[in-house]
Design a protein that fits this description.
By secondary structure, the chain is α/β, with parallel strands linked by helices. The protein has three domains: about 240 residues, Alpha-Beta Barrel (TIM Barrel), CATH 3.20.20.300; about 200 residues, Glycoside hydrolase family 3 C-terminal domain (Rossmann fold, 3-Layer(aba) Sandwich); about 120 residues, Sandwich (Immunoglobulin-like), CATH 2.60.40.10. The protein is built from 22 helices and 26 strands. The strands form seven sheets. The protein has a six-stranded mixed beta sheet with strand order 11-16-15-14-12-13, sandwiched between helices. A five-stranded parallel beta sheet has the order 4-3-2-1-10. It has a five-stranded mixed beta sheet with strand order 18-26-25-20-21. Strand 1, helix 3 and strand 2 form a beta-alpha-beta unit. The longest helix has 17 residues. Bound molecules: alpha-D-glucopyranose. The site of alpha-D-glucopyranose has 11 residues, from loops.
Amino acid sequence: MVHDKISGLLDRMSLEDKIGQLNQICFKDAEQMRYEVRKGRVGSIVLAGTATAGNDEQKKMNFDLLNELQEIALKESPAGIPLIFGRDVIHGHHTVLPIPLALAASFNTELTKAAYRAIAKEAASDGVHWTFAPMLDVSRDPRWGRCIEGFGEDPYLTAKMGEAVIRGFQGENSRKADSIAACAKHYIGYAAVEGGRDYGKAEISEYTLRNNYLLPFKAAVNAEVATVMNSFNEVSGQPVAASRYILHDVLKDELGFDGFIISDWGAVAQLVNQRVAKDRKEAAMLCANAELDMDMADGCYIENLYKLVEEGTVLETTIDKMVYRVLYIKEKFGILDNPYICKCDIDYESSLKLSKECADESVVLLKNNDILPIDKSEKIAIVGNFTHEKRSLLGSWTLDGDVGMVKSIAEAFVDYAGSNNVVLSQSEYLTDEILFHLHKVDTVVIAIGESHRVTGENNCLSKIELPEAQVELIKQIKALGKKVVAVLCFGRPAALEEAEPYMDAVLYAWHSGTFTALSVKDIVYGLINPSGKLPMTMPRNTGQIPIYYNYPAMPRNGMSYYGTGSNYLDCMSTPMYPFGYGLSYTEFEYSDINCEKDDISVDELRRGEKFRISIMIKNIGKYSGKETVQCYISDLYASMTRPLRELKGFKKIFIESGKKEKVIFELGFEELGFYNANTEFNIEPGEFDVYIGKDCTAKSSVRITVV
Ligand code: GLC
């Protein structure tokens, strides 16, 4: 049925019509767009005017123009194929969610899916058919500004969060008007750029590529992601954009991806910069023969593919396969039959409520020397550069958010506790004016952070330590004998080695969207019990990078994960805070870990049998709260070095004070297998230790054996 429909369309299309479907133009002068669409030279429009839309203050998008352009495509272009409109709806549309790295700290895939369902409706109502998210780059380097766009350092967490985002965007029925096509990006290895320097070299072995970076894309394909975007980087010398092995053999043949690949902005033309194409024509030839299906914004395909087919260096059958995939997604998302904007019924109240819940669960309590929560009647001071900040709380890649809806930390606290109980100062320096007020309070909230402008694309930092002024402010206030509550609004992990000893409580609030400040206020005053857990290791200092928990067994210096055996002489070897770590106002006790079966054969596992491991968790504190129970495996003997700990399960549960819950994890072929030296995904016989606990340092363990 669908195949016949698409094949029929293809049969009626000229070569020019087909090539037009593979060309995505950027949002430019309206007359220019009308002309190109009318000529049949456009299959898609990226609703962005510049290559770094996440950074640039974009002109307000003229969504009304979309229906007009669509009508031209339908009624005036030769083939009459509707356009597909794409936009970077990364973590919000009009309602802004936490940046993805912050949302990963929630470890709440159900909430994530619901929140993305809500923003999909908002975006679809504006005419967005397709979003360029989720970003599934597994990032171990907080110097890389784009770490904020992904879900952290762990492949499993990234896979689960990515799947939730895809299902949220695409909905249960892709043909519904409020479903939008998702895009797994950047395929593949972009986050491995050396030194965290964007667009740089990524030296990745096949073994690491498959076991570290491929897993999230495998999960995305299994979640039926509509599109994939290639990454700018090369992998061990070959630009991904020109790699038929990576784009076609692995993604399409091996993983069975049936959607289409969109290039990143200009990635085709950039092969000339990478000196693997002598000109734009050769760049187009390399990418088309790698079956990179659609060319974003640089015009290489529309300019050269016709000649390349005429010369025979690109076969028309190749073009047909690429166009088929584009038409298949346009059909799958109902664009061929319902090309015009369909206003969805949007429950903005519900969207905002979901955004607040996301922020509540993204904030991570890193330290609490028993001073939080505080009573609203206690007089406090708030100082620091984020006291009145609003825009940066929304984070990078906020194209359609409304800063007018954002409350600052000052507003949130004063609205709740009253101006008599909250003294404010935005200064980053201990001025006389602050001093005058400070003697009236015992507790000082130091609200500091980084601008969203130093996060995101091509915004990398050579060091991630807190700025000197912020450290100085913290020290001076501590020297006054105050209780210091540090509220840290950074997009990426910050290095806290120097300042942390002067902080009595640390709340990592990230850039958590519209409701960042309200969530911070609710947590500080105990209206919300914090439940966030770190999706990325917090280094003590920049020199420790890269430092990540899933480090392989080492030849010498001890067997502690994090590679803590390989010490620096001038720094402790452990991170400031480990992966999966986050405190609560209550305490959870783990006990009675148990495995139903001690051993299962490889064949039984291959046939779907699983180890079922249970554990009891009791809330022994006075607050009810949520806990993310984490399950890690440790392969004790394999043909390749394996991480000493690997996250292979997590469950976020709510437990009332004094109550207990049993949690069960199932570990089977997918969880215990890995890609071996021959790139085969397999399980090897041997023993595994399974650790279950509140972060990657979990102690409770049970041994299982694959026979
Ligand atoms: C940018 C980014 C990519 C984004 C695209 C469209 O260069 O690399 O993540 O989706 O262009 O804005």
